Amino acid sequence: MLLIVAAHATRQGTADGTDAPAPGARARFRAWRRSRPFWGGLLTALGGVEMFFSGQLDIGKIHVQLGIEGLQATIIPVLLVVLGVLVIAMPAHRIFYGIIALAVAVYSLVGVNLGGFFIGMLLSCVGGVLTVAWMPAKAELDAEPESPGELDGDAALDAAAADTVAGDDGAADAAEPADPAKGAIA
């Protein structure tokens, strides 16, 4: 899938049918990176890598491993790396992967040497939050309403709000002009 996106990015033409020079590799990478939650996935994967290597370390003469014979110290970091890669590869499922990454990162506090001595847990939590918070670029709408009476959702809400502010029945208010001599009590 990534190769298809890269191939499509290199075959760009202009409006008059001539081929424009292909953008450089850096510009193509920038466009690809901005189309997905890249930094969230990268931080989640880096947090998993840090947890994996911190689980294999000793602090002086103390070897810290919690969980069932250190199995969690291997599974949780590998799961975080896989979630980080999946977030980058499939941005459509970013919310699901981000929430799972957050839950696994918080659980790593108990399951993997205090979450990789807090560094891996913090990297993975920040990556999960960035993943969940990322939104794709808003596509511009090229289509105009077909008829003047047809309104899009926002315009219809604005029209309804204007009617509410004008009163319950705007036509009745226009038919009977207000008489200042009558006062507030009718």
TrEMBL record:
Segments traversing the membrane: 38-59, 71-88, 95-112
Keyword Ligase: no
InterPro entries the record matches: DUF6114 (IPR046096)
Keywords, alphabetical: Membrane, Transmembrane, Transmembrane helix
Region (Disordered): 165-186
Pfam families, alphabetized: DUF6114
Record's protein name: DUF6114 domain-containing protein
Lineage of the species this protein comes from: Bacteria, Bacillati, Actinomycetota, Actinomycetes, Micrococcales
